[in-house]
Amino acid sequence: MDELDEIRRKKLEELKRELAARSHVASEPRIEYPDRPVLVTDSSMDSGIKQYPVFVVDCWAEWCGPCRAIAPVIDEMARELKGRVVFGKLNVDQNPLTSRKYGITAIPTLLVFRNGRLVDRLVGAYPKQILMNRIKKYLD
């Protein structure tokens, strides 16, 4: 009987460890990766930077022709890079605090954040392949 009790005790300890490991994984926050750009404002910019490992913010304005020209490219890239990159759209006219904070003086400007840090800035309307190449170098 003692040997059987020892086997049960060990098996129970294994099950407890396994359950503890599973509950730890389940309690970690799960990141949702949208397949289209998310709206970014002065009040949501910092949370977006913190939430997503790679966050690309398109700083634009409605009156800007080059901004409108790259908008479909940004939409395509958001779909193609879903699960790896989140794209945001920041209207500079409606969000002057963020525009000043990051020194946005020309648009379109793409700000690339990786793990909460600004790692790249692209100013101007670049072709899709150039944007892809620049952004892909920040992926794991």
What does this structure look like?
The protein has 5 helices and 5 strands, in the order αβαβαβαββα. It has a 5-stranded mixed β-sheet with strand order 1-3-2-4-5, sandwiched between helices. The chain is an alpha/beta fold. The radius of gyration is 22 Å and the shape is elongated. The chain has helices spanning 2-27, 45-51, 65-80, 96-101, 128-136; strands at 38-40, 54-60, 86-91, 109-114, 117-123. The model has no long low-confidence stretch (mean pLDDT 91). It is 46% helix and 21% strand.
Contiguous low-pLDDT stretches (5 residues minimum) are none
The average pLDDT score comes to 91
Distance between termini? 53 Å
* Beta-strand content: 15-25%
Shape: elongated
Number of helical segments with 4 or more residues: 5
Radius of gyration: 22 Å
Strand arrangement, largest sheet?
1-3-2-4-5
- State the major sheet: 5 strands, mixed
Secondary-structure element order, as H and E?
Answer: HEHEHEHEEH
The oligomeric state of the chains shown is: single chain
Count of beta strands: 5
Helix content: 40-55%
Structural class: alpha/beta
